[in-house]
Amino acid sequence: MGRIFETIGDYVILMWQTFRLPRRWRIFWRDLSREVYAQGVGSMWIVMLVSFFIGAVITIQLGINASSPLVPKFILGYSAREIILLEFSSTIMCMILAGKCGSAIASEIGTMRVTEQIDALEIMGVNSANYIILPKVAGMMLFLPVLEVFSMFIGIMGGYLAAVFTPAVPLKEFVTGVQFLFDESRILYSMIKGEVYVFIIASVSAYCGYTVNGGALEVGRASTNGVVYSTVGILVSDLVLTQMLLV
C-alpha cells in the first residue's frame, strides 16, 4: 500500500515539474507541432478504420437482437448513435490510443532515460520533464477533438452502410433513429471525457518511461505498464465522469 502512495506522489511531483511555462517557446511550438502530427494525425487511420467497422457491427448486432415486432425499427439507429457518441468515440477510441500512442510515448521516453539523454538535459539545467513531456500531453489533447469528430462521423457512416446491405436494419428507419431526439450536449460530454482520457494516457505513459531504471528490458516493461495503467485509469475515470456528467 505504501508503494502505491509513493508512486502517486512521484507522479504528482513529475506533473508539477511538467506543467510550467516553457523557457523557449520556439522550441516548444516546434515540438508541439511534431507531437500533433505523430500522435494525432498518425492515429487517424486506425481511428477511422476501427470506427467504421465498429459502427457497422453495432448496427448489425442491434438489428439481429432487436427483431421483435414490439420494438420499433428506428430504435436501431437511435441506439447505434447513442453508443457511438457516448462510449465508443471517447472511451473505446482512447483505449485504442492507449495501445498505440501510450506505448510509443513510454518507450521513447524510456529510451531517452536509459541512454542518459534525460540526465544530460538536467546537467545543462533544462527542466527535462517540461521539455519532453509537456509537448506530448498538449499535442494529444489539442488534436483529440478532431479524432473524436472523425470517429463519430465514420462510426455512424459504418452503421449507415451496414443498414444498406443488412435486411434486418431498414435504411429509412435507421436514418430516422439517428436523427431522433438528437442532443448536442452528448458531443460535448464525449469531448470532455476524451480530454481527460488522453491526459491520462500521455501523462501516465510518460511517467512510466521517465522513471525507467535499467536497460532495454525495462523499457519494454515500461511500455507495457503505460498501456495497462492508462487503460485502468480510463475505465475508472469513465465510471466517475459518467456519474458526474450524466446522472
Termini Cα gap? 32 Å
Largest β sheet strand count, sense and barrel closure: none
Global geometry: elongated
Percent helix range? over 70%
Number of helices: 9
Instruction: Give the tally of β-strands.
Output: 0
From the alpha carbons, calculate the radius of gyration and give it in angstroms: 21 Å
Order of helices and strands: HHHHHHHHH
Mean pLDDT: 86
Q: Give the amount of beta strand, in percent.
A: under 5%
Q: Give unreliable regions as ranges.
A: none
Structural class: mainly alpha
Give a description of the structure.
This protein is mostly helical. 83% of the residues lie in helices and 0% in strands. It has nine helices and no strands. It has helices at 2-18, 25-40, 44-65, 74-114, 117-123, 128-165, 171-179, 185-210, 216-245. It is elongated. The chain starts with a helix and ends with a helix. The mean pLDDT is 86.
Descriptive tags:
247 residues; mainly alpha; 83% helix; 0% strand
Quick description:
With 247 residues, the chain is an all-alpha fold.
Secondary structure blueprint with pairings:
Blueprint: H1 2-18, H2 25-40, H3 44-65, H4 74-114, H5 117-123, H6 128-165, H7 171-179, H8 185-210, H9 216-245
